[in-house]
Design brief:
Organism (chains A, B): Bosea psychrotolerans
InterPro entries (chains A, B): Ser/Thr_Dehydratase, TrpB-like_PALP, TrpB-like_PALP_sf
Number of helices of chain A: 14
Order of helices and strands of chain A: HEHEHEHEHEHEHEHEHHEHHHEH
Protein name (chains A, B): Threonine dehydratase
Pfam family, one (chains A, B): PALP
Shape of chain A: globular
Oligomer: homodimer
Largest interface: A-B, 35 and 35 residues
Radius of gyration of chain A: 19 Å
Strand order of the largest sheet of chain A: 1-2-10-7-8-9
CATH topology of the largest domain in chain A: Rossmann fold
Strand content of chain A: 5-15%
CATH class of the largest domain in chain A: Alpha Beta
Number of strands of chain A: 10
Largest sheet of chain A: 6 strands, mixed
Cofactor (chains A, B): pyridoxal 5'-phosphate
Amino acid sequence: MQPVSGSPAPDFSATQPNTRLDLQRIRQARQEISRVFRDTPQFLSATLGDVLGCELVIKLETANPIGCFKGRGTEVAMSRLASSSGPMAAVCASAGNLGQALAYSGRARGIAVSVIAGKGANAAKIERIHRLGGTVELVDGDIENARERAREIAARGDAFLVEDSENLDTCEGAGTIGLELVEGLDRIDTVLLALGGGALATGVGHVFKTLSPATDVVCIQPRGAPALAQSWRARSIATTDRTDTIADGVAGRFPIAAVLDDLLATADHVPLVEEASIVEGMRMFYRHAALVTEPSAALGVAAILEDPARYRGKRVAAVICGSNVLPDTFRAWMQG
Amino acid sequence: MQPVSGSPAPDFSATQPNTRLDLQRIRQARQEISRVFRDTPQFLSATLGDVLGCELVIKLETANPIGCFKGRGTEVAMSRLASSSGPMAAVCASAGNLGQALAYSGRARGIAVSVIAGKGANAAKIERIHRLGGTVELVDGDIENARERAREIAARGDAFLVEDSENLDTCEGAGTIGLELVEGLDRIDTVLLALGGGALATGVGHVFKTLSPATDVVCIQPRGAPALAQSWRARSIATTDRTDTIADGVAGRFPIAAVLDDLLATADHVPLVEEASIVEGMRMFYRHAALVTEPSAALGVAAILEDPARYRGKRVAAVICGSNVLPDTFRAWMQG
């Protein structure tokens, strides 16, 4: 279409939802991510799809040195820090996966990494942070107490704070998953995203709402850690006193206002699922797709199990965001 | 270097081992393979490497619609058949994985696929061949009886025979795994390859012996299905009366002479491993790398467990060639 003489230049940015994120920056982020975290497998699982009554696309983010998607965001953050004049040190609060990712991306660029975690954090994840050269500080309480401590350290000016989901690099890094899905498949009716702090949901959601706006963006939280989902419904921050879920990777209590705004602009549906459905989802990945997943990676299948009509016959992409589980715990879930 | 006047043109092919395979054709094969089977994850597993006493690189061939590497070969074979004047039908004998791969690659190109299997073949694999649109004929006996039947069908002229490992497309397709490893990593001391019919071993072996000749090419068979390994040692075809191994994907009794010749030119070491080591290898992938593997995929780790000194401190690449197991069988192995 030719622009009409005298009319303003076409505003391509108008097609993007109103979030802090930007498609062009997400495309640039892709260049800053090591090959080991990019261009991950995406394929139809006919067997699992048949069981679930839909055409299921698996997007596998676990076949990398840290077993989860978070390397995409930390690669972007550490790449930008390395070329800045900031301190060559970084700190984050993490239940484990972000900590592993930051330790990996920091070490690759000569940046010292400290990870703050609650004393109840997953032991296997903590061990792997050490193995990747990160320093770990355990604090009383949960991830929210750890976030507070990380902010204190950063406020002293000694380290760059990577606040998951608040930091745009973590969202835009995660958003590169969306680019790969949109570019690699001719149609996706629904994308299923675990909702924790919000980086994965808003990053991938931003890409879909820009390039494939008809795709239903479904972001799922456990009923036992519902703060951001409740905030989305109320269109206003809601917090909770505690969390009670096996999905440790998504268990936050204090949503970030800016992230909620982004989520309001990108998510179409934000269901809460039961713990039993999460376990059944992990069993299905194991039995029908030979995949070991952590609970947060099974939130999408849990959502299908609780509301099959919404997904029946659709082409549904499930992002398998992590596989960091203790083997004995996983075995118990598989046997229950 | 300028060629001396009157001298023959430089013979770059002299750097290749003397096999039926050709590096240029392997490079071309890459173009004929769907993205879904190519450029698979390859990454260091620090946790599993620490346990094994080496720097372990995992090359993951299971995150695709058929859960194994064999799509690489069938993509090449069916792509070439589709552009030929041959029958638009193909037949193969298969314990399951080749059958799934051929059904997938045939359907994508409008080629009818028949798979012949012994009645004892893995039920989950047979079911998946059906799901992918392939026809399955079960015959009395094992894979060798199935091979005979497939040859009969092809001899009638009704279908193109894909004889695994004898057919060069299957070897050169598998060889693309080697290209990805050599191009993606600056050094690999040892590559561990399951040895069944020989396509994977000779395909990847040919690439390494051409582009990275110092790499130790180790091809592993189970002690319960040792025909090709014994042939390699004797430098002459040896057959066995029976096989007795859980590694159904590599259990052949009648090696192919041309493949043995290729293996003699590419393999540096061909150990036989115990069943208990294979099970322990699967347990290690599960516990330390969150991977479900079929027994043939664990032959490499089994070899490390039985001869750790050979691999200590080395950078060792293990090709995870398949994940098609019955969940209940796998669970039993994990618990033993």
